[in-house]
Amino acid sequence: MNRPVSTSAEAVRFIDAVGFCVLFPVKNVPLPSLYAAVAGLRPGQRAKWDKYAELVWAWKDELPRRRRAFYAKFFKTRGTFISLKLLPQFLAMRGSPLRADDYDRFYAKGRISQDARAVWEALAEHGAMPTLELRHACKMESTAGNKRYKKAMLELQCLLAAVHFGAEQETAAWPSARFDLTVRAFPGQAEAARNITSEAARARLAAKYMEWHPTSPPVALQRLFGWSKAETRTALG
To answer: Is 80 helix (H, G, I), strand (E, B) or coil?
Structure first.
């Protein structure tokens, strides 16, 4: 897509075309960014806060809330869009939870911390919640609690267990991020992931990445996804 993206519908088409991208350009993350597509940036140009940044900042709330794309802090813990067409592969690749009440099993297996378990349980019990309300439900209202909450929420986003699901005006300051469990926000994609092996998922994601980066060395793919050398070789086939 060479023409600058200017509407939310075009943003969805861009995300679907590239498969997965970051919100703003990230150093050492070889992925397209939605901001660059809107602002018409050339590779290597840096983002700045302008009318284009304001537009994509609004879309990060709108698109997942309208179930048009998945958004969470995933690649290198930075804002990431994932096309709903590839979300099942991402869930299968990460071994993400496919049940809302699976927090005890993931905690017992050591895949999440106690704080992440508490946040997950609160979302499972109460449904989608804005940040301050969620922190209160988890008894993480203090400054130290906020640090624990942020770390726990990052865990859940990197596991693709939680999704950024809009925003809510809780105070007079900036709107608070609203979160939900991925399995509840995108049940169709979660159900599809049940029938995909991690090997098949990695192969599909590798193919999509190489479609846009045909000269990229295997190590770039390995670092981006955190795969082993053997997993990367198999994925590339």
So the answer is: strand
* CB of 54 closer than 8 Å to CB of 71: no
Of 55, 77, 58, 90, nearest in space to 186 by CA:
90
Q: Name which of 2, 83, 82 is nearest 42 in CA terms.
A: 2
Quote the CA–CA distance of 80 and 149 in Å, as a whole number. Answer: 20
Rounded to an integer, what distance in angstroms lies between the CA atom of residue 205 and that of residue 227?
Answer: 12
Local structure of 89: helix, strand or coil: helix
Is 48 a residue whose pLDDT tops 90? no
Please give the Cα distance from 91 to 59 (Å, whole number).
22
DSSP 68: S
Asked whether the beta carbons of 26 and 89 are under 8 A apart, the reply is no
The topology (CATH level 3) of 96-186 is: Arc Repressor Mutant, subunit A (1.10.10)
Q: Hey, what are 10's tokens?
A: 């075009």
- Tens of pLDDT, residues 148-162: 999 999 999 999 999
Query: Mean pLDDT of all residues in the chain?
Result: 95
CA distance 74 to 163: 10
